[in-house]
Amino acid sequence: MTALHVNTPLLAHAPLSRALGKQVWLKLDNLQPSGSFKLRGIGNLCQNAHAKGATHFVCPSGGNAGFAAAVAGAALKVRTTIVVPQTTPESVREKIRAIGAEVLVHGAIWDEANQEALRLCEQPQAVYIPPFDHPDIWDGNGSVIDEAAQQLPDGFDVVICAVGGGGLLAGVVQGLQRNGLQNVPVIAAETEGVASYAAALQADEPVTLPAITSIANSLGSKRVAQQAFDWSKRHDIRSAVVSDAQAVDACLHFADDMRLLVEPACGAALAVAYQNLPVLASFQRPLMIVCGGIGVDVGKLAAWKTQFAL
Fold this sequence. Notes:
This protein has 310 residues and is of the alpha/beta class. It has two domains: 200 residues, Rossmann fold, CATH 3.40.50; 94 residues, Rossmann fold (3-Layer(aba) Sandwich), CATH 3.40.50.1100. The chain has a six-stranded mixed beta sheet with strand order 1-2-10-7-8-9, with helices on both faces. α6 crosses α8. The longest helix has 15 residues. It is globular.
């Protein structure tokens, strides 16, 4: 079975490498057909469900997960419904419709859209496609490390990735484990106001945030997946929390340096290096997962720059 995602480039980040005195590497998953890493895991889940007879995918998402599910549905010629909350911008809804998926608007928040998606999945052959919390998703997301391990034979000594619900984090750790890289730590980056993973580590169990107050809404999970938390007991995972302003500043620098646009959610991971945070001090060959995101354009980046007086 041919995967729906593509192998993405791994490039050196020359300006950051010079500035930090390290060898900084970028895994450019913003170049996936879905615009983000999400196609790795969600594509894997959709392919497996299709092989078992699914004729209808239903995904509750206001952004990247829904876009990836729509891309997967179009590739597999399977009817796909994306249930979005009222907060999802019309521009994002239109991008999803343009791929061929049906878009239903339900509820004021994601939790209400999720309940409607679960109700729709009571129909025969309809399969629920969660944004991040499923073993097939973690397995698919782990392919980013499978590739990086082949592309960088001299290795990397830490992986930096953004964490929202924890689907990418769980996949990265799974990928490290299965490639014999279980001693390579992971820096899990979040923004203030949506740091559910940092809260889970502090409480020693997943906790539900009272609200999401960050502009990095692609990280907007009030509660991290149990699997992502469980990995912290078996793998060296270090938390890094940055401000929205630092995440946007990283996006702006990244656009200048690499001529690529990414969401503030991705900027959270990039900010670990751009801010030269203490958590990075002991490492010499960091690998940053550039997770991408469809919720960015030149206008939004300019507006965020003004908002934070950058």
